[in-house]
Description:
Layout: E1 5-8, H1 18-33, E2 37-42, H2 52-64, E3 74-75, H3 80-92, E4 96-99, H4 103-109, H5 132-140, E5 146-149, H6 151-161, E6 168-172, E7 178-182, E8 192-194, H7 202-212, E9 217-221, H8 227-237, E10 244-248, H9 268-273, H10 278-284
Parallel strand pairs: 1-2, 2-3, 9-10
Antiparallel strand pairs: 4-5, 5-8, 6-7
Amino acid sequence: MSDTVTRFAPSPNGLLHAGHALSAIIAHDTARQRGGRFLLRIEDIDITRARPEFAAAIVEDLGWLGLSWEEPVLVQSQHFPEYLAAADRLIAQGLLYPCFASRADIAAAADPARTDPDGAPLYPGLWKNADAAAVAERIGKGETPALRLDMQAALQALSHKLSGAPLTFTEIDADGTPRQIVADPARWGDAVIVRKDVPASYHLAVVVDDARQGVTLVTRGADLFAATDLHRMLQVLLDVAEPRYSHHRLICWSDGRKLSKSNGDMGLRALRAEGANAADVRRAIGLAEAVPDGSSR
């Protein structure tokens, strides 16, 4: 049995499309080819958008694609205490601070020329070093702050933990060649680690869950390549294991736009309704046909 553990971690805020099929099949086939384990995780911390009917549809669509995974499936909304515990570890290191700023507040104060890798304005430090009395007053009024990473303090803590060595991660290219990448988490600025509405952000939850589930190879789309910088920082700060990464190609329209759940682009349900089968989907997204043992030829 290989020590390879991969996962597919969709958010149940819409139906799966061909881009999701690419991610799921790559993770599944990689694990099967290596005699490893494939996991399914439902990333539903965005409780305002997640829907149980979409979670059920994800399971059905993946089964239709011929994929199988270990049970039980991890559902993030059932594990908020674990994310809070991780946040508490960062708080104990003096690395998180409360922020009450709205998106409008940030947009009004931010330098439009300075953005994070997702294109959002870099946080302009509105509540960094805020007066404790001002924070207590807002909390006393019933407001819940987000918790942001003090990037400057985090970089100092990181340097100490790594004894001054650079922060890196291992990227496995499509041909299987490993590369060492030097990470640059500073480009994310003081990122949100705990949201106002739920006790985690995507970045914190994915790091906690990959470590808890023993994921050794994170396969995901190239649009998440930059997020790896921040994830590697959190892994070091939380003293959890480092997985390897493989960021695969995206499926895009001819004008370069990636597929989107919100637009229903190439939805698996629609493809099935048109008479497509799992082999058709594999061919359409440029993957080899599945063989009986679940690997690819």
